[in-house]
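W.,

You were right to be curious about this one. When I first looked at the sequence I had no strong expectations either way, so I just let the prediction run and decided to look at it fresh. Below is the sequence, 215 residues in total, followed by the output.
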Amino acid sequence: MNNQLISTMGNYAVAIVPWLVVGTIAAYFLEKRFNKNTITRYFGGISLKRLTVVQALGMISPLSILSFLPIAEELTQMGFNPGVLLSFFIAERAWDLQSFFIISGLMKLFNQDLITGLLTDLGFPAAGFLGWLVLLTEIIFGLLVLIGWKLGISVWPLVIILVVAVIKVYVPQLSINPLVATINILFHLTTIAGFITLALAGPGKLAVTRLLSRE
């Protein structure tokens, strides 16, 4: 198992290092190609429009967060407002937390037999009804968490889904494939902790719901 863990960590390192290289190269060309005054003019201050733009970019960004670390340093030196830049990173990371459910729910929506078959195999009654309930919960509450709506309420249906998945799916797999099961359990527990943190701390100052309430 130790060899498997080392191999997994090694493969992960190999997977993320290229993103850091991509970010470093992008930062170099950013310095060479973009005018500092242009960056300062468009992103040198904080406004709702700027925050909306960078948060939208953060949510749809296909790149790893490591790619943006050298880019962020270069942008800051060129006059990019640190608060606006932080908004991008928050959106990029926050999107990862609930996008797991949004994407998962959409996949179930387009392939309902998948979730129905899984629930049937796990011994749940009314698998068809529960399948719809699960996929709608993932999509709707994932979107609510995304915009920061009543996080003290909206995170808990997702937490319940995660807890059930750990107990019914991954704990039984410990005797079959302990490495994969352990990784999945740790991932789910980390995500649960993230959602509970959101429930306790509430939405941040840059949450969509708070920004709209100021208008």
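Here's what jumped out at me. The two ends are 55 Å apart (CA to CA). And, maybe more interesting for your project: The first helix runs from residue 2 to 33.

Coffee later to discuss?

I.
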